[in-house]
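Dear U.,

For the methods section draft, I wanted the exact inputs and outputs in one place so we can describe them consistently. I've listed the two proteins in the order they'll appear in the manuscript figures. Please don't edit the token lines directly; just add comments below if something needs changing.

First protein:
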Amino acid sequence: MQRRDFIVSALMAGTTLGTGRAVMAAADGNFEVTRSEAEWREMLSEREFYVMREEGTEPAGSSPLDKVYEPGIYHCRGCDQKLYSSEHKYDSGTGWPSFWKALPDAIGTKEDRTLLFMVRTECHCDRCGSHLGHIFDDGPDPTGKRHCLNGVSLVFKPAEA
């Protein structure tokens, strides 16, 4: 791992450590799918809960979904909503699954100021509020966007033959 990649990964992994933030869905609004914290904890692993419900970040390069490029749809692990098509996926070289566009009406966004001196756009599932990752302005055409996602927030379902 290069020094720059290590520093970026360390910053990303530490974005919510020690904040004790409440479950995002409860704090940010009403979602079609809601669960109590206990229900979320029962259905998700510790890492999944940290990322999806406490707005954490998985380590770069830790998701097998980063290198999956077969045809299919990426769904929300929290509610099974269709979020991203494999047609919009690309290798960003960041170590996280990256897409240049989401499916229509699949995600919501909000401003994220958890990193000192940095404003990012956070994205979440529009149906259950689960944290997915962040959107940056350094992606490919035609949108110029990079939806940099946590693989633990996603379930890949291959296209039927």
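Second protein (the one for the lower panel):
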Amino acid sequence: MKPLGIEGAWVDTPTVFTDDRGRFHEWFKGGDFQDSVGQGLRLEQANCSRSARGTLRGIHCAAVPPGQAKYVTCVSGAVLDVVVDIRVGSPGFGTWEAVRLDDTTHRCVYLSEGLGHAFMALEDNSTVVYLCSQGYAPQREFGINPLDPALAIAWPDDLTPLLSEKDAAAPTLEQAEREGLLPSFEECTAYRGRLVSGA
């Protein structure tokens, strides 16, 4: 696993074994994950979504603590997966990083608690699966509009974004900060420190 430019996010490109029967790869290994991230991945929920080309899901976030860390991969098709630093006080606040996840490279992205997550399907029937450190809790969940012009995420020009009503109505990053929805970098760092130390 290699760290991304946003602190608290990593990308993993597994070795894919191919022969005349097909392909095989290990998309998650607890020991390797712990060696890279410094903690194990607590698993409380596993999600699977299938999306039509152009579907844009996110930016989704959860209040910290406990937040919701995610380990994400695309098992069919391709998506542009985006991690957004929404932690108030972070040196990277408002920055984002995109990674193409597809069924050829089988890359995975891990984002720790307090980071925002979104993806756009680049092909029809793109299927994304992700492991979550916490279960879905509506009272702790919030969103940020993925088309916020201030974030200026470089979604593909050749696709018309297809959003849910909820995601389309989500506040901008600035509005979410004003409304006190966003976690602070300090509390996210402290929470992660407790997870790493096992406290």
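Candidate sentences for the figure legend, describing the second protein: The first strand starts at residue 2 and ends at 3. The mean pLDDT is 96.

Thanks,
Y.
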